[in-house]
Design brief:
Two copies of one chain form a homodimer. By secondary structure, chain A is of the alpha/beta class. In chain A, 41% of the residues lie in helices and 25% in strands. In chain A, strands 3-2-1-4-5-7-6 form a seven-stranded mixed β-sheet. In chain A, helix 2 crosses helix 8 (208-224). Chain A binds chain B through residues 145, 147-148, 150-152, 154, 177, 180-181, 183-184, 187-188, 194-198, 200, 202, 204-206, 255-257, 259, 261, and chain B through 145, 147-148, 150-152, 154, 177, 180-181, 183-184, 187-188, 194-198, 200, 202, 204-206, 255-257, 259, 261.
Chain lengths: 272, 272
């Protein structure tokens, strides 16, 4: 499978900016509780443009990170972002998540964020990553779930625009509603002591930073990003799609509300 | 409006047992942060069978509660529950929430839980309750939102069964998806410093108490409770409805996941 071609969000500069915005707004939420001690060797599988990589490396300055991605172009951007942040504890490798050339038990920890949603065989990917863990090592998995998105005012047009993104991702072999499956997937992959924490992003008129940083610049921007692909695929026409985006922006008004949930799972590889 | 006849959940003994189960499982979640100091006069508007009343009175033993409900039969059960718990800090009054016979500014605090969802004019109800608050008094509002329910495995039949409950509640003048609107409703009712906390109930195979207490005995039991009404209203046939209930129980398996969110809002009446 050519995973580069199948990546639903695309590789445009504006999209990369969105991913960096998203990481900034969500860093505290998604990375809370994730810290790797000095000397740990940590694999970030599917680092993309480095949106999480910088946060990981800043929060755990003594750990040694290896960040891999299937896209050489993304990897170059991730490396630039890490350099711009003045970090020296990350090395980069160009590789497919299903064909990683590391020896078994090479890593103390594995971190996977917003990656399984794009894979046709997520449980197999986790099992392959588990093989790279030392006994007792930890795995952290973070995914969103578009089925967790709801808002006020309710809007069929907004739901239809979101459904375009879900369908495009499905056609590319992924699953935009995978967040709720993090627990069973990690258990299926043979991890022990699996524990999942949902992170609900709740945005109302009293939270202007989240209105701008999440409702508008993260979620609505992400859906808007598939406009041309959705129209080209015959999933929507321009007017209907634009109405949906307008209604998503409407939820960012003072009397609007927006909810979305990320799921963060942690588990361990059995010792011995 | 005859609100007794319109109450979607009905008044059967099994339903009352479900409401008590629900309150037990959810008490810590819903009542966290809610405590009334000794001497406060607190109105619980719409106490029903007393599912929240007992928790309120136990957690704030020095406060004086007045619990009102439109149903005399429910009120009698609430009174029995409070007596059975050995509590003496609650008095009961039979009244419609839109025609409360208290003087303005009679209470230090108002508590409203799972009530607005059944009212055709929720903002007006909050405004009427606000009038009963002393300046500086607090209002606490708790509501669920059936649009926040999602699960694994996904099931169109389960969604259809849930939609029956939502539609019956709508026909009765209510809104089963009102949770997300707690913030704008409280602001619209003229409350100040409104702050809403979502309480996400996340249930997976590692949480057996919630599987039993929430997925099965609270949510699925609630949807199952409208079976006859949904069939009588022509919203479903028996086989389709029962398939939906079966699929909701399926989400309670070891590899299943269930999510639901309650919204808890607090606000104040402006001083002077």
């Amino acid at each position: 499978m050519n995973e580069v071609a199948a990546y639903v969000h695309g590789y445009h500069p504006r999209e990369n900016e969105r991913l960096q915005d998203q990481a900034g707004t969500l860093a505290d939420l998604l990375h809370a509780g994730t810290h790797y001690a000095a000397g740990r060797r940590v694999l970030e599988a599917g680092c993309g443009v480095g949106a999480q990589t910088v946060t990981l490396a800043v929060r755990s300055p003594g750990a040694q990170f290896t960040a891999v991605d299937v896209s050489a172009a993304s990897l170059a951007q991730a490396e630039a972002a890490v350099m711009a942040a003045g970090l020296s504890n990350v090395q980069f490798r160009h590789a497919d998540i299903f064909a990683l050339l590391f020896a078994p038990q090479s890593f103390d920890d594995v971190f996977v964020c917003f990656v399984l949603e794009h894979l046709a065989r997520p449980a197999e990917a986790l099992a392959a990553l588990r093989a790279l863990l030392k006994p007792g090592g930890t795995m952290t998995v973070i995914e969103g779930d578009h089925g967790s998105a709801y808002f006020h005012p309710e809007s069929p047009a907004a739901r239809a625009a979101i459904a375009c993104q879900v369908e495009l991702q499905r056609r590319a072999g992924g699953d935009a509603m995978i967040g709720r499956m993090v627990y069973p997937l990690m258990v299926q992959a043979g991890l022990q002591d699996v524990s999942v924490s949902p992170c609900l992003v709740y945005v109302d008129g009293s939270r202007p930073a989240l209105i701008e940083g999440f409702t508008r610049r993260t979620f609505t921007a992400m859906v808007a990003g598939v406009r041309d692909a959705a129209i080209a695929a015959g999933l929507s026409d321009a007017d209907a799609f634009d109405l949906g985006i307008r209604d998503l922006h409407r939820t960012a008004a003072a009397d609007g509300v927006f909810c979305y949930t990320f799921f963060k799972g942690t588990g361990k590889k059995r010792r011995g």
